[in-house]
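Narrative summary of target 7.
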Amino acid sequence: MDDRSGLTRLTNTGNGSDSGECNQNDCPNVYRTERGTFVVQGNMSDAFTPPSGEGLVEIPESVLREAVRVLGW
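Modeled conformation, tokenized:
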């Protein structure tokens, strides 16, 4: 199931040459929810074991920088 309604994609939007290093839905991405929180899609990290029900992802700095740029921070 791939329901991304209610999410605003901030990275890899396809808007110009600086829109990220991946295509479509197959790479690290940052989304903003209607509640103002962020959903991060990326490769799983084993840096430490998170509490039950939580997960860790590892994303390139370039993806975070793009999200910051889009938000105008």
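The longest strand covers residues 29-33.
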